[in-house]
Amino acid sequence: MIRAATANAPLSIGSIELPNPVLLAPMAGITDAPFRRMAHRFGAGLVISEMVASEAFASGHSETVLRAEGAGAGIHAVQLAGNQPGPMAEAARLCEAAGAAIIDINMGCPAKRVTTGLAGSALLRDLDLATRIIAAVVGAVRVPVTLKTRLGWDDSALVAPELARRAEAIGVGLVTIHGRTRCQFYTGRADWTAIRVVKDAVGVPLIANGDLVRAEDATAMLAQSGADGVMIGRGAQGRPWFPGQVASYLRSGAVPPDPSLDLQRDVLLELYEGWLSHYGRELGIRTARKHIGWALEAAAETAGRTPEAARDWRKRLLTLDQPEQVRAGIRAAFEDMSWRAAA
User: Could you report the per-residue pLDDT of 299-313, keeping only the tens digit for each?
Assistant: First the structure.
């Protein structure tokens, strides 16, 4: 039994009830286990792994297996990508055996390296293959299966309603729609109104995704799309607390303040240790750099500083390759932000 949510009610998929209908999007190279754990702690309703290549996962590829890790991040949801029913089904079985409570199928990634392999949003050009993949995954596991996709390959083929209908008929329990076509990539604005056409085509809960960067945006997104919940992607970069802020806003109508600069500093330092532990020292240092940059931008905004302040500190911090120097630099950057904010 699947129960759709309103903005003020939880969202249920089978026996799994989410605390709120605000989801953190799977983002390759960004929503790794340390980041997802932090977003969960701050109140995201569900956090989903970064995209996991099904064949590489099934073969035990170490870096791919690491992407599917979910310990400490609440309900364990893994997103799989691939272009063949067999490997997708096998990867789904392995993920379930490793503790995944939800399997999400990626049919929306626009990256050329993915679509060239006929995966991600390339499947919007072959609905019969997409249908076989969905059926294979649903048939392989006992846990709920969800689907994330886009409006279509381009404006001439907006096939998301048909794909969503097929997915629901097979047994998919929730559909997420990014309000762009593949050919748009991330340009222009996400079309929240176009998502409503997909919502009207299915009875399962639908999540709207694309361009939610302020908590107040969630109201318009839900109204225009008719969706049962929202998914946040780039709006959470450097701000793992943002999905939780949106959830609080939808409950109360009031936008919570950003965490204090001291708390933002402590969050970043904890995440930094998490990346070093998760990836190992060398890869962890490199992985953390983009997150540090985004976190500094968020801190500058909280402090009322100009973007140049964040850019100056980024130049200093992102060239460091010794963890103790990075930690000291983070503390110095936030001390500078705090002093300037108080001045």
Answer: 999 999 888 889 999
